[in-house]
Model the fold of this input.
Amino acid sequence: MLATYHVHTTFCDGKDSPDAMADAAFAAGYRVLGFSAHAPVPVPSPGNLSPERVAPYAAAVRTTARRYEGRMEILAGLEIEWVPGRGIPPEEGYASVPFDYRIGSLHFAPLPSGAFFSVDGPAESFRRGLEEGYGGDGSRLYRDYFREVAELVRAGGFQILGHLDLVKMHNKGGTWFDEASPGYLSAAFEVAEALEGTGIAVEVNTGGLARGKTAEPYPSLPILRELRRRRIPVVIGADAHAAGHLDRSWRRLGLDWAREAGYRELAVLRREGWTTGPLE
Done:
């Protein structure tokens, strides 16, 4: 059963409405579609929901779900953010709104000023942040990044881990660090160790490919193989910010990636809970 759970709309940093995203997903053959707006955070981030937008976002997704009732199951979710040094932000801004699931993600890295920079922001912003926060040392950044992701996993409160190695987005060609080095893989494997036995699924995320940011999905094959060795379930995550990102061609790349890592089935989240299905 075709399913994806990482979808953004104009309520946060997406380009299309819930209806437009649902129409594209249905036309592409999806039968389970999860919306996952960026939850409110206590740091400047224009791509995240403001607290007053949470309820209207959830209501809009439920309205779209009614349009597709009996044809495509639509879930209302959130992508919650781990903030280094602060953990998962207090949920007052969205705790009263019922959601079907949550994706846990890390986008931010700290600066000496107490501010943060986004590891998936513009390339120049990333470079400045790396210089200011880490003296240009990419190995310090990835060690901190994976340590924080492991802390996010241990904190729990979500069903799917988003783009596990997002820190590599601006590292094409090994610009800042060696992704094949023992140090990098050891740091990433700490996340795999934290995941083992939790029931949290990891997404094979094709969003970087669809937006022309990466040459491969998240996570990399060595990391994905380690997840497979530890029997961590996976889903295919479109990380769609526009209707075109739900095209089946991107999903096929994610499926091929999972298959190459040794996976033969996917986890499928429905309203009633988790099931499994073949890679398709």
